[in-house]
Amino acid sequence: MRHLTPADYTRQPWKNGKGVTVEMLRIDRGGQLLARLSRATVVEDGPFSVFPGIMRNLTVLTGKGFRLIGPGLDLRCDPLLPVAFPGDTAVAAIGTNGEPSDDFNVMTAAHLRVPEVTLVTHGTLPAEGLLALYALAPARVNGHAMVALDLVLTETSASIDGGPVLAARLHLS
């Protein structure tokens, strides 16, 4: 089990220059992105960056949310309800009404199995792939204490108590 805190995260500007991403985890293989977990704030209506060959999953953590629209795509991004969309589709956030929304992002290479993202407060998640557990409030994972904004990575089963915790199951092969 690996425990990361905000001190381990890196900040970087968005590709479109309209914000900053806090990158919590990045896994590359052969110079290509396999998976990335990050947090960002959507503060205004506007385009999202395009990431060819990447699947995206977004979960609004704070704020009222917004809609993502693009060719053949119209998704409501409501608080704590994960939504998935292809990163190579040009999408834009609309309906922010000037109210910021913090969001948790999971990006994976399109050739991989789509990650499963769920909100958990109590229970056990089975071992399968890499589990990334992001604490939204104090929690315990396998008896190990986490505070809000911590990230625990494990390839074993995870017994969760407290939180909520946003669980992202990544399949990296």
Please, could you describe this protein's structure?
This protein has 2 domains: 102 residues, Jelly Rolls, CATH 2.60.120.10; 55 residues, no CATH class. It has no helices and 17 strands. Strands 1, 12, 13, 14, 15, 16 and 17 form a 7-stranded antiparallel beta sheet that branches. It starts with a strand and ends with a strand. The mean pLDDT is 94.
CATH superfamily membership of the largest domain: Jelly Rolls
Structural class, judged by helices and strands? mainly beta
Radius of gyration, in Å, reads: 15 Å
Count of individual domains: 2
Regions with little confidence, pLDDT below 50 for 5+ residues: none
Number of helices: 0
Reported CATH architecture of the largest domain: Sandwich
| Average of per-residue pLDDT values | 94
Hey, roughly how much beta strand do the residues contain? over 45%
Output the CATH topology of the largest domain: Jelly Rolls
Percent of residues in helices comes to under 10%
Report the span from N to C terminus.
19 Å
SSE pattern = EEEEEEEEEEEEEEEEE
Strand tally, please?
17
Shape: globular
Quick description:
With about 170 residues, this protein is mostly beta strands.
Tags for this entry?
single chain, 173 residues, mainly beta, Jelly Rolls, 2 domains, 7-stranded antiparallel β-sheet, 6-stranded antiparallel β-sheet, 17 strands, 60% strand, globular
